[in-house]
């Protein structure tokens, strides 16, 4: 929620100092960050075990290695924009990562309701478009 570094000429840094204050920089307390973290411990942490377990179901249905968290990344050959267009809401956005396209999958929220069969079907449909 907070924290940044700014590098540049002395003149640039001096001008930025005014805007840092105007945009809410220079917090004298970390209560906003601590409050956000405490909220996450109460609301996100209890769901994490189920999300990790379901990420394993999703990855297996896609024929991917078992993930260790509820998020995993994978690479495909091809144009990232085209893969994003083809995947729709199933996989989200791809971007260039070296010579391959990369995307990251987060198994949370609505993804928790997908069955292994639904994932297999969506994955097969996506692959048929490639």
From TrEMBL:
Highest taxon of the lineage: Bacteria
Designated name of the protein: Uncharacterized protein
Organism the protein comes from: Lentzea roselyniae
């Amino acid at each position: 929620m907070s924290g940044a570094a700014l590098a540049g000429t002395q003149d640039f840094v001096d001008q930025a100092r005014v805007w840092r204050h105007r945009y809410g920089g220079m917090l004298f307390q970390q209560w906003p960050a601590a409050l956000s973290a405490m909220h996450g411990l109460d609301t996100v942490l209890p769901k994490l075990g189920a999300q990790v377990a379901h990420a394993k179901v999703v990855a297996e249905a896609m024929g991917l290695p078992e993930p260790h968290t509820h998020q995993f990344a994978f690479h495909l050959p091809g144009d990232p924009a085209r893969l994003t267009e083809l995947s729709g809401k199933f996989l989200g956005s791809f971007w260039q990562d070296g010579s391959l396209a990369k995307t990251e999958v987060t198994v949370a929220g609505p993804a928790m309701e997908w069955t292994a069969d639904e994932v297999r079907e969506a994955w097969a449909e996506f692959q048929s478009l490639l």
